[in-house]
């Protein structure tokens, strides 16, 4: 009668190591890809939110103390509270204004463009920009 001892044989151990060596890299790659696929939409959503926030500020204060002139070409590098994002505001030159006797030459509107730059989870530079047209009415 033969007694067997519990345990692994050398062949079983080598087979387990080979299986792990073959299986682990694709698993790690898929985990990395899942992280990238999860992070990039969040970063893009944050960029969109930062653009909308600035557009709302422009609309709310277009005849305020800063006005359009203080916004054109303004850059926030980085955006306060969001160190991975940079934001730029540009205002088009088309413009008509009320001079008391009538409208001066121009088209009567401005195009406001807000762009946000960031680096995605794969270290690729990304840019999202949104433009809107605002009428320039007298205050």
Describe the structure.
- This protein is of the alpha+beta class.
- It has one domain.
- It is 37% helix and 22% strand.
- The chain has a four-stranded antiparallel β-sheet, covered by helices on one side.
- It is rod-shaped, with a radius of gyration of 29 Å.
- The protein starts with 9 loop residues before the first helix and ends with a strand.
| Total helical elements | 1
Give, in spatial order, the strands making up the sheet with the most strands: 1-2-3-4
How many separate domains make up the residues? 1
Gyration radius (Cα, Å) is: 29 Å
Helix content: 25-40%
Which structural class should the secondary elements be placed in?
A: alpha+beta
Shape: rod-shaped
Q: Detail the poorly predicted runs.
A: none
How does the major sheet shape up? 4 strands, antiparallel
Percent of residues in beta strands: 15-25%
What is the N-to-C order of secondary-structure elements (H for helix, E for strand)? HEEEE
State the total count of DSSP E strands.
4
- Average of the residue pLDDT scores: 82
The separation of the N and C termini measures 105 Å
SSE layout and pairings?
Elements: H1 10-60, E1 74-76, E2 86-91, E3 109-119, E4 125-135
Antiparallel strand pairs: 1-2, 2-3, 3-4
Give a quick precis of the structure:
With 139 residues, the chain is of the alpha+beta class.
Task: Give keywords.
139 residues, alpha+beta, 4-stranded antiparallel beta sheet, 4 strands, 37% helix, 22% strand, rod-shaped
């Amino acid at each position: 009668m033969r007694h067997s001892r519990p345990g692994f044989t050398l062949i079983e151990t080598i087979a387990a190591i080979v299986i792990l060596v073959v299986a682990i890299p694709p698993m790690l790659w898929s985990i990395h890809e899942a992280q990238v696929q999860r992070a990039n939409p969040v970063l893009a959503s944050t960029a969109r939110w930062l653009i909308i926030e600035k557009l709302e500020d422009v609309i709310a204060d277009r005849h305020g103390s800063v006005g359009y002139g203080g916004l054109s070409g303004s850059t926030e590098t980085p955006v306060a509270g969001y160190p991975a994002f940079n934001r730029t505001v540009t205002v088009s030159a088309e413009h008509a204004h009320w001079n008391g006797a009538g409208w001066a030459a121009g088209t009567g509107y401005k195009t406001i463009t807000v762009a946000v730059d960031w680096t995605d989870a794969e270290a690729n530079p990304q840019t999202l920009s949104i433009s809107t047209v605002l009428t320039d009415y007298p205050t």
